[in-house]
Structures are given as C-alpha cells and as structure tokens.
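Trying the structure run again after the queue cleared.
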Amino acid sequence: MSEHVISEIKRNHITNLLKEGRRVDGRGPEDFREMTLDVGCIESADGSARVKLGRTEVIAGVKIIPGTPFADTPNSGVLTMGAELIPMAHPTFESGPPGEDAIELARVVDRGVRESGMVDVKQLCMVPGESVWMCFVDMYALDYDGNLFDASSLATVLALRSAVIPGEQYGKGENRPLPVTCTPVSVTSVKIGNDLILDPNFDEEMISSARLTVTTDDKGNFRAMQKGGRGSITRDELSLCLDRAVEKGKAVRKIIG
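Done. Tokens:
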C-alpha cells in the first residue's frame, strides 16, 4: 500500500470532534456505519457474499474441491484464505502480488474463523489420509474507506454460512451444506489520541496510533485478537475494547440472522 498523508487541518478536526464524543460523519464513538449485505451474489461460487460498511465494500467467494489432506492432519479437510486489494478500490492500493497489508488482512480473518471453530474441518474428511474437501476463500476489496478487517470478516463468514459442498459435481455423494458450527464476528477499535472508536473510516484509520481487532463466537467468548499500529493500548482500554466486541458482536448477529 502506498503512503497517504492526512492534512493537519483534517487531523485536528477529527481529534477535536472526538473530544466532544462526535465524529465527522455524525456517528458516536461506538457506532458502526450502515451495513449492507448480499449473500449468494456469485453464481459460479460454492458460497459468496458482498458486504458494505459505509463506502467500504468487500466480496468473498468460496470454492470447495476434493483433494488430499496435509500429512499432519490426515483426518481433517483444508480451509485456506487469501485477500486481494485491487487498485480500483483505492488510490493507495498497488497492482502486483499480495503485499503485507493483504497478507495481514487474510491472516486476521483466517484466525477469527479458524480459532472459533466455525467450520468443522473433520467433517470435510472423506477417506482419512487420502481424500478430503478443500475449502478456499478469496476476499476482494472493491472499495476502501476504512476497516477492511470487519468488512472482510463478515463477508467471509456469510459466504461460508451459505456454502454448499458440491458432492454431485465430483461424484462424491450428494450436495450438502458446509459444516458450520457458529458465527464469529470481529469488531475493530482504533485509538486516536486518548479516544477509542469502532469501525473507523479511512481518515480515522490513517491518523490512529493503534488498532485492535477482537473476534467473538455466538456465546460471546473471545476467540481471536490482533493488534496493529505502533501505539500502545492500556489495560483499561483493552477491557473497553473487549466489552465493545461482545456487545457489537451480538448486535451484528441479530442483523445477519
């Protein structure tokens, strides 16, 4: 990702509003932007979803094919994720192989899904040590205005929930839903000065000193956590981030059903 400079005037405007508990777009510190969901938007995929958070837009597709298991997990299927930040999504995105930002995005989303046990990979095993289902998830940023982590995570989760194992296509029995056990939800906080806000837009993200993405499961258990940025987060701030992740996780699950 190329460098992007935020003007001092804009930076001061954002920080001064936050001191009053307000944000440039009218939201409060804990408010998410408007959320738009479209599940099953790619006909050729085995599962797909498009998610918009404000002007940030991500699409995720799932492809499931038969293959061989890894040697160290002979009784488990394969689940892998990748992300691409395509140049048309934002001027800071560059063409070429996935850079550090795309790799980090894929890892954070993967960790939340994997550590929550969302997909029961053992049920993807057909013949132990010989044949399993391999589930590939690809995420594409279509438009970027901050907080790709939560948008990508939600698109991935919805795509996986809608995915169908194409047994008939490969002569491997009947089609069946991907074995999904829960709905993990990630909630990202960023720190600007001494303030913590949720779902940052691009400008807020650029001037933040630290970022924390927390993923919870259906029961509100913490399943994954990833910090970014060079700034620090105090113990009290961490506690606030965790409480907000549980609260917002419940709210998001009500929206997606």
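The two ends are 35 Å apart (CA to CA). Worth checking whether this holds up in the mutant runs.
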